[in-house]
Amino acid sequence: MNKDTSSNPAPLFVSASPRVSFCGYSIPHPSEARVNIQVQTTGDPASEVLKDGCQSLINMCEHVRQTLDDAVTKFKNNHVSDTTMDNSP
Prior knowledge:
With 89 residues, the chain is an alpha+beta fold. Helices cover 60% and strands 15% of the residues. It is built from three helices and two strands; from the N terminus they run H-H-E-E-H. The protein has a two-stranded antiparallel ribbon. Helix 2 (9-15) packs across helix 3. The longest helix has 41 residues, at 46-86. It is elongated.
């Protein structure tokens, strides 16, 4: 997986906070499994703001996953009922 693609969401969610004046990331070297995230805040501890941003990202991912699971279940239920109706005499 591209490290830029997988690393981009965290700084995006962190920078959405009004407590953040700057948030960016860098990948020190492509062969290293490491990402540096720099957070500059308006006064709150950067570690707290980073944790809050990451929690927002986790919450959004959980919501998307639940929405997808619900849609798949609904589709399967509708598809099964359509199939059983087609097979009736």
